[in-house]
Amino acid sequence: MTSPLLSVQGLTKRFGDRTACNEISFDLWPGEVLGIVGESGSGKSTLLNCLAGRLTPEEGSVLYETQSAGIVDVHHLTEARRRLLARTEWGFVNQDAREGLRMGVSAGANIGERLMAIGARHYGDIRRTASDWLERVEIDLARIDDSPTVYSGGMRQRLQIARNLVSNPRLVFMDEPTGGLDVSVQARLLDLLRGLVDRFHLSAILVTHDLGVARLLTHRLMVMQRGEVVEAGLTDQVLDDPQHAYTQMLVASILPV
Ligand SMILES: Nc1ncnc2c1ncn2[C@@H]1O[C@H](COP(=O)(O)OP(=O)(O)OP(=O)(O)O)[C@@H](O)[C@H]1O
Questions:
Q1: Cβ < 6 Å from ligand 1: which residues?
Q2: Residue 28: burial class (beta carbons within 10 Å; 0-12, 13-18, 19+)
Q3: Which of 39, 90, 191, 205 is the most buried (most CB within 10 A)?
Q4: Which residue's CA is the nearest one to ligand 1's atom 24?
Q5: What's the whole-model pTM score?
Q6: Backbone angles phi, psi at 114, to 5 degrees
Q7: Do the strands 6-15 and 59-65 form a parallel or antiparallel pair, or are they unpaired?
Q8: Which residue among 13, 37, 45, 55 is best mutated to probe the pocket of ligand 1, counting the most ligand atoms within 8 A of its Cβ?
């Protein structure tokens, strides 16, 4: 029997007297893509940041099964070990690619840096792998030495995805990866992400307010309202036959038939 990659128990995060996430518990299984959906302000990003160790919850635990050191409690690791974990086993794709890229170095270096962080040293190999990944995310190789500052929004997002996936992460956190882009750019990025998720059997947790994105990319969904998970289940089931009044409202407003 396999064990969960991530196991979350009773996670609560408050900002002053506002509870952004309230007693959230769930498991993520290897190879699974879990979507977190809900309206703006429902607590999705806060939850994601608590899972990835970027925010510290007031209560609860986030247990992660590491590749070599067994199960660790993300919030009881030292800062140095958490950073190491983030660098070697996780990816984090931000909505704003500028936050996930180093804007002062070339596209190739953005990918190469990640490889060097996991021990790659041979310049030729690093350059070759960076080139492969640029191709994989449909960026013209002629742009490898350009800085991402001269990339379009869609290209930057594809570069951020390449930078995250090049190190073969076991778990990828994504916060609105297609947000803020033109509709046609979004569609292409979604196609690309879906292909990569399938090809690399990614385990991922994806935050989105877009139920169309959730439908395309996720296996399972958690629906959040005011910091609570109000409904959870297989994505198609939740979207085709929502049980909670809030989910019914979301589905009716976002996916009109
Ligand atoms: N740093 C912070 N300080 C104070 N309150 C915060 C902070 N971050 C989030 N909140 C509050 O926590 C609640 C949840 O916010 P969060 O950003 O997690 O929601 P969200 O569902 O991700 O929304 P969006 O889709 O707009 O990003 C909101 O009421 C928000 O105002």
A1: 15, 18, 20, 38, 40-46, 209
A2: buried
A3: 205
A4: 40
A5: 0.94
A6: -65, -40
A7: antiparallel
A8: 45
Q: What's the 118 CA to ligand 1 centre distance in angstroms?
A: 33
- What b-and-e string marks burial along 196-206, b requiring 16 or more CB atoms within 10 Å of the CB? bbeeeebbbbb
DSSP codes of every residue in 39-105: STTSSHHHHHHHHTTSS--SEEEEEEE-SSS-EEEGGGS-HHHHHHHHHHTEEEE-SSHHHHS-TTS
Angle between helices 107-117 and 153-165 (to 10 degrees): 20
The residue assigned the tokens 């990614």 is: 202
94 domain residue, yes or no? no
Q: Are residues 109 and 84 in the same domain?
A: no
The verdict on 82 and 137 lying in the same domain is: no
Same domain for 38 and 158, yes or no, is no
Question: Same domain for 26 and 83?
Answer: yes
In a domain, 1, yes or no: no
192 with 150, same domain: the answer is: no
Mean per-residue pLDDT pooled into runs of 10, the chain (257 residues)? 92 96 97 95 96 97 93 95 92 94 96 91 92 93 96 93 93 93 86 89 94 94 97 97 94 69
Q: Of 112, 146, 168, which residue is a domain's last?
A: 168
Based on the domain organization, do 35 and 15 belong to the same domain? yes
- ipTM given for this complex: 0.95
